[in-house]
Design goal:
This protein is an all-alpha fold. It is about 75% helix and about 0% strand. It has a two-stranded antiparallel sheet. This is Regulatory protein zeste.
Length: about 260
Amino acid sequence: MSEHGGLESDHVTAAAPANSTTDSVQQSQSFIASLCSSPYDLSTVKSNESDAPHSPIFCDTTYQLKKERNDYVVSLAEHYMERICFDSSSRSAQVNAERHNMWVKVAHLTNEKYADLLNPLGVEQTKKLFSNCKRRRRLRLGKSEDSPLASLSVSPDGNTVDPNMSTDAMPSLDSYLTSNETSPHPSLQSLVHDLDLTVEIKELRRQMAERDAEVARLKRKIVEQANDYKIRINSIADILKNGTDRKVSEDIRTYLNVS
C-alpha cells in the first residue's frame, strides 16, 4: 500500500477511460481517412465518369453509326457479288440458294460487327437496306452529273467537303475478314465454308460443261474424219475394181484372139 493510500488506485482507474477514449478518436480518424482515400471518393467517381466513353444514344452518333453500317453492308454485298459472279436475272433453285446464302452471311457479319451498337438486321432488312443505298447512290450520281457543284457539300464549320472523300474511318473488308480468321465464330465459319463450297461446285460444273462440249466437238470431228476416210477408201476400191475389170477383159480378148 502506498503512502497516498487509495488515491493511486483511483488515478489508474481514471486513466483507463481516457486511454480508451483516445483509441476511439484515433480509430475514427483512421476510418475517415480511409473513406477519403477509398475508390468511392466523389472526385474519383466524377473523373471516371468524365473519362468514360459516351454511349451511342445521341441522334448524331446513331446517325453516323447507321451510315457506317449502310456503307459496310453495300461494300460487303458488292464484294461477294463480284466474287460469286452469279446471274442476277436467273431464278433457278441453285442461283436462289447461292443468293440467299450470300445475304445470310452479309447480315451475320454486319450484326456481329455492330451487335453492341445497333439493333440486329434480318436477311430481308439487309436486302432492303442494300437496295435503298444503291438507289440513293444512283440518285446522287445523277444529280452530280447534272450539276458540277453538286458533288461538293458544306460541313458545319463552313468548309467544303467532297462526299467521295469521307472522313469516317471504316475498316476494310479484307482486314475485317483477316481478323475474324484468328477466332472464327462457329456459325460464321460454317457459312463461309458453305459459300466457298458453293463457289467451288459452280466452278467445277462450269469446267465439266466445257469439257463435255470439248468431248462432243472431238466426237464430231472423229465422225467427220471417219466418213472422209470411208469415202476415200471406197473411191480407191472402185478405182482398183475398175482397173481389175479392164485388165481381166483385155486378157480374155487377147486369149480369144490367140486361139
